[in-house]
């Protein structure tokens, strides 16, 4: 309403100035012309579909683009901060934006990275590069107990709930997934029409609140779950144990964002803040977790079932592996969420200090599954600040089979990281339930950007792998990723980390894993003994 009034006011002022120029003095034309131009520009801002910030903030929104053109560092510092307050790498963000727009993302004049900084990583090119594959490989999700496997793309939309994101943002993401042939994780906020309507493939995520399959007292409703898992668009079902930015605590949806529609989708009271419990009711031991996952697969009529976690204790995860071995049943996939993953609802201390970063988490899970003889039955997904083809290749080298991106997909939809997610006043309509603001997200335009971004990023990953002499992700090896240990020393991942052989934990666990494997108890998450656990050791 205010936007329309602004255009009307400028138009009225321009008309008055023009009338005064004819009736009073020609000097009034000096005011009439600028006012008329501003009115026309404001009207154009309201009807154009490319920039959501201009649709919500006609005229004023141009200040953002002026800052961007004047000095990228100014825009980076004052406008596009990371969710945790630290700048998201400008070059990475630029790559995402340019790929989403379908323009060339290459920038000249060398790297922005300090190549001699400790911790810097480098992929190893080959002297005999391979041709770039035209058809991106897909990953078959479905173990021996799965009767309806799914072929997952190398890069997919990570979990973002209805409630956290607007209806139009979800429509754009799912339409992009449908156009590009990749999957869209629903997040834990339930299964809405905005996930289902476009027809994109879905990974339905169930969190501790059991939204969408929730009893009146907040428990798991098997009947509702089976009904919704039967949707044709639902290709996989995921149980969220924890997420990267805030492992160990539940999600929070402020009451201002709990509209009548969201309350209906989630099965919660309208207008009241929704706080997900920090723990699940459906299991309390590793064995119960494994059995519940098997039950979910039965209720989903054989569709792939998995779980998502931010890795903490290696001993606890080994306990889950022991339960899988003893029960002779496994999930079809495990999604590892890195602690560097972002969310606007995460307490700062959790975001900064709790949980393993994605690389360590991936290697911990990969090695545990290999050592327990389970790796060939379970696929591993990876999520946590994945934005470029290089990010994707690194995660595959560290143990993943495929990747998920959240923040980069939000960039593609139009997010400018204004850090207003929790206030319901997102300036571009992405993270809000205010319908007037959300209308700024043009579904047709933004869905194409999502498709283009995913396609270009996977293509970039294939180009990097080809430069490394690899035809397929299965050819990637730990020695192909180098890390600078100090200013004078570079070592490969093959040398820096221990990589277990298939079944090695079952036969004879190596010294750096033996104590954790021995202490891991399939019937308790707490260890059998009080010996020290080494969570980050892969």
Text of the CATH class of the largest domain: Alpha Beta
The N- to C-terminal Cα distance equals: 56 Å
Give the biggest sheet: 8 strands, parallel
What is the CATH topology assignment of the largest domain?
TIM Barrel
What would you say this structure looks like, in words?
This protein is α/β, with parallel strands linked by helices. It has two domains: 2-79, no CATH class; 151-496, Aldolase class I (TIM Barrel, Alpha-Beta Barrel). It has helices spanning 2-23, 29-47, 52-56, 62-70, 72-78, 90-101, 167-180, 193-196, 222-229, 260-266, 286-299, 314-327, 348-353, 358-371, 389-397, 407-413, 435-438, 443-467, 493-496, 504-508, 511-519, and strands at 121-123, 139-141, 150-152, 155-157, 183-185, 201-206, 234-240, 252-253, 274-275, 305-309, 333-337, 379-383, 402-405, 481-486, 489-492. Strands 4-13-12-11-10-7-6-5 form an eight-stranded parallel β-sheet. It is globular and about 100 Å long. The termini are far apart. The model is unreliable at 70-87 and 530-538 (pLDDT under 50).
């Amino acid at each position: 309403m205010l936007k329309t009034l602004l255009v009307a006011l400028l138009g009225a002022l321009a008309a008055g100035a023009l009338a005064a120029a004819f009736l009073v003095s020609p000097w009034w034309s000096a005011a009439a012309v600028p006012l008329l131009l501003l009115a026309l520009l404001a009207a154009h801002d309201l009807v154009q579909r490319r920039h959501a910030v201009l649709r919500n903030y006609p005229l004023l929104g141009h200040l953002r683009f002026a800052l961007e053109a004047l000095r990228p560092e100014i825009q980076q510092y004052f406008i596009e901060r990371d969710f945790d307050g630290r700048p998201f790498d400008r070059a990475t963000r630029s790559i995402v934006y340019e790929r989403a727009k379908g323009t060339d993302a290459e920038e000249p004049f060398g790297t922005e990275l300090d190549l001699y900084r400790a911790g810097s990583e480098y992929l190893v090119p080959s002297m005999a590069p391979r041709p770039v594959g035209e058809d991106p490989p897909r990953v078959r999700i479905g173990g021996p107990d799965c009767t309806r496997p799914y072929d997952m793309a190398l890069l997919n939309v990570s979990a973002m709930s209805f409630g956290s994101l607007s209806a139009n943002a979800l429509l754009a993401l799912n339409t992009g997934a449908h156009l590009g042939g990749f999957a869209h994780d629903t997040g834990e906020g339930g299964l809405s029409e905005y996930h289902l309507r476009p027809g994109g493939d879905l990974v339905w995520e169930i969190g501790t609140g059991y939204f969408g399959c929730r009893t009146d007292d907040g428990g798991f409703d098997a009947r509702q779950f089976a009904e919704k898992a039967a949707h044709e668009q639902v290709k996989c079902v995921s149980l969220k144990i924890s997420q990267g930015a805030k492992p160990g605590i539940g999600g929070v949806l402020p009451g201002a964002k709990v509209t009548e529609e969201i309350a209906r989708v989630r099965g919660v009271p309208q207008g009241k803040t929704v706080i997900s419990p920090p723990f699940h009711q459906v299991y309390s031991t590793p064995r119960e977790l494994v059995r519940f996952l098997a039950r979910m697969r039965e209720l989903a009529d054989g569709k792939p079932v998995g779980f998502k976690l931010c890795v903490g204790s290696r001993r606890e995860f080994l306990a889950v592996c022991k339960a899988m071995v003893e029960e002779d049943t496994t999930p079809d996939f495990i999604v590892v969420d890195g602690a560097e993953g972002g969310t606007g609802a995460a307490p700062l201390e959790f975001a900064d200090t709790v949980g393993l970063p994605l690389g360590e988490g991936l290697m911990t899970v990969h090695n545990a599954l290999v050592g327990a003889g389970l790796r060939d039955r379970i696929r591993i997904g990876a999520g946590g600040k994945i934005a470029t083809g290089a990010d994707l290749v690194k995660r595959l080298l560290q143990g993943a089979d495929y990747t998920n991106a959240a923040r980069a997909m939000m960039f593609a939809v139009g997010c400018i990281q204004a850090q207003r997610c929790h206030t319901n006043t997102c300036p571009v309509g992405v993270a809000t339930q205010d319908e007037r603001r959300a209308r700024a997200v043009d579904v047709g335009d933004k869905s194409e950007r999502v498709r283009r971004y995913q396609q270009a990023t996977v293509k970039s990953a294939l180009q990097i792998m080809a430069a490394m002499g690899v035809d397929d992700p299965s050819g990637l090896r730990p020695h192909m990723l180098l890390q600078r240990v100090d200013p004078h020393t570079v070592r490969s991942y093959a040398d820096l980390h221990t990589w277990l052989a298939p079944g090695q934990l079952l036969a004879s666990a190596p010294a750096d894993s033996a104590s954790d494997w021995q202490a891991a108890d399939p019937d308790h998450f707490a260890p059998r003994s009080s010996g020290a656990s080494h969570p980050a050791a892969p």
